[in-house]
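Q: Sequence in, structure out?
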Amino acid sequence: MIDSRFYLSQSVPDDQMGLVAVMLCDFQDRKFLPWECQWEEEIIQEVRDVKNCLFRFKTKLAASLARCRIKRGLLSIECILPESVKKMQERSKSLPLYAWVNTLKSSLDEVQSVLKSAGFSQVKSIGQLEGQTFCQDPHCGDILVFPAQLKAQLYSTELLSDHKLIIQDKSCSLGPNAVCSLLPEDGDVLMVGSFSGLTVSHTASLVAEKHKSNSNNQPTVYICVSDCTDAQRAELALAVSTMGCRNVKLILEVFQSLDGGDKRLQKVRVILLMPKCSVSAVSNPVEFILQENGDTNLLQDLSQGSLAQSKLESLVARQRKDIDHALKFPKVLAVVYSTCSSYPEENVEVVSRALQQAKACSDQKGEAKQANFRLSPSTFSYSDHAEAAETTDPFFILEPSKKSNGCFLAVLNREPEPEVREAPEEVIARANAKGILDKIGSNPLPRKEHHGHTNRMKKGAHTRTSQPNLSVSMHPKNQQTKGSSRAILCGQQELTNTQSSQGKTKTLALQALKSAVSSSISYSKQDCTSSCSKPENSAPSKSIAPVFKTKTTITTTLHPASPPATNVTPVVRPRRAQQEVLRPMVLVLPPVHFPNFFPPRQPPRTGFSPSFNYNRWKPPAQLVSSSRSSADLSKNATGKSHPLFWPHKL
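A: Exactly. Output:
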């Protein structure tokens, strides 16, 4: 058409050039013989106009074809295609039909039930497809596979006309299935590239089906349609509404102008990138390009079996820009990159370069910190797909075969932020710098222990002020007892001075020291009681040596003191948080004959001598005072002191 100048001289709209190519092939096969039919009056006016143009140019078209055959030495028109294109045509004749189930209008079980009721039988694999059979695709669970010749019978089931079953190439369905498996519950999808309304509807139906339990807040599928014409946008919108999709929104802006600050894209977590590619892995490129809104300018190169280097470089440059920009969205967790090309420049090299570029940008100083992406294992496996050739992990690659067209798919996941673990010393130092833990690094007491330590210090101070007074009031003439009290106080002070380096040892030492002080008071009470029956000259000395598990060992010696010369006011011991109960002492005294002025004998009491008429226990000071008074009375009455009231040392 170009060589005969038909394309330049005839005023045929570009959207009708497909019709021109189809009718030209038909007229070429029939040697440009006119149609012989009775329904010519019913032919659409556009078809009639194209027919008239072709018949006017039939001589020039035939001459152009003859020159091409002579130039290449072709025996027939079938020989005009290269061997690679001939192989692709042979594969396309045996390609099975792939159809995905529209879950917005039906379900997989319902479709299978309808097919079986229509006479279809289900087999296990694609290799077993023969006759009126179907099977489930090994990679995508919502795709059913049929033999190529059953398309007419599928229309008879009304599954296609009701949009419950959609015929589409498998290479267009792998991307939506990968997105559905990666999308979190509260995330949206952004689709960028070259695709049809069927691919958009498939993605929207899968996302809606996965999150159908959350009907109030379903994920949204955003579509960049800046590269589409008005007719293509209208076609896409019609296809989406026909399929029953309500979670699709169009974005008219160019993808390169979008960023993470766009309010519409705040919840986008997965980007499906299906850029324009060479379609070199597709066995039926004409049908594929027309159905998927592809670039028709590629058909001329594809008919020659190879793509011009300039066009390939242009496609690769656009693909690099798209994937680099997709990795810049800060909240995107995964990017799915899918093409139908067999060129490594459009597949592995584009993805590898994008990962290196993203890592280099994140390492540059002064640039915004960008999380790294990594290649993740494919969500599809090769185990059940025998026709898949060599595998290249972590990419998913299908080579063109008689079972399916070829495709390439890669999943780029965002790496999680590395977890920074600090040493305990660093955490304490940082907390001390902020004044949070009150310089815990200098070995202070914890808050709870510090509170207990403050209470103990208060109690120790109170004890130091009360215990020496008790010793002085009871033993004013005994200097050794004063020295013992000072030794106890010095031991307390020394333990207090060493508490900063001995946390737990200090606590145990203070408790032991309190026990020693209590024991000294107990011994004083016992000696005071026993002084009523022992002479002054036979007063033994008692030595108590409490040993503490500290660097300082304190030995305290307590001696009984003589009774005070004057009455002393009873000393009340301060109330302590923990008091030690003193065990009662049983005193057995020899019988004593009292003078007549004593009151009559009282009945014997348990634990006391019959001649002892005290009814209750008295503090040591009262006991000593009463003993001195009784001794004075006895001495005045008889002229000598009674042995019971001889002074004793405590």
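Residues 267 and 613 are 96 Å apart (CA to CA).
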